[in-house]
């Protein structure tokens, strides 16, 4: 089994990459990708600490976070069909 410290280190590296991208990039797409890296690193920490403690609270929080992001995307686009996501082509 992989030690929990490895997951924590990977999460901190992802968070650092996301912060650097957030503060140094001017491109909107890259800034959004950096924010996504930040969210994913926090979700990884939620799941890691959930495993360390032995309960499911962190996993539920990570799942809830991903569900909120998907619902926000659906609310803004009104569809789940990826062929309709052409707003980046403009």
In short:
The chain has 90 residues and is mainly alpha-helical. The protein is 76% helix and 0% strand. The chain has one domain: Helix Hairpins, CATH 1.10.287.
Biggest sheet features = none
Strand content: under 5%
Question: Distance between termini?
Answer: 47 Å
The value of Rg in angstroms is: 16 Å
User: How many discrete domains?
Assistant: 1
The CATH architecture comes to Orthogonal Bundle
Q: SSE string, helix = H, strand = E? A: HHH
* Sheet/helix structural class: mainly alpha
- Mean pLDDT score: 87
Gross geometry: flat
**What is the β-strand count?**
0
Low-confidence stretches: none
Number of helices: 3
* CATH domain fold name: Helix Hairpins
User: CATH class, anyone?
Assistant: Mainly Alpha
Structure description:
There is one protein chain. This protein has 3 helices and no strands. It is mainly α and 90 residues long. Helix 1 packs antiparallel against helix 2. The mean pLDDT is 87.
């Amino acid at each position: 089994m992989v030690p929990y410290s490895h997951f924590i280190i990977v999460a901190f590296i992802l968070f650092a990459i996301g912060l650097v991208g957030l503060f140094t990039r001017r491109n909107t797409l890259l800034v959004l990708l950096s924010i996504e890296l930040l969210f994913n690193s926090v979700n990884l920490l939620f799941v890691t600490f959930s495993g360390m403690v032995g309960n499911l609270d962190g996993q539920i929080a990570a799942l809830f976070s991903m569900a909120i992001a998907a619902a926000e995307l659906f609310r803004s686009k009104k569809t789940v069909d990826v062929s309709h996501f052409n707003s980046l082509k403009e």
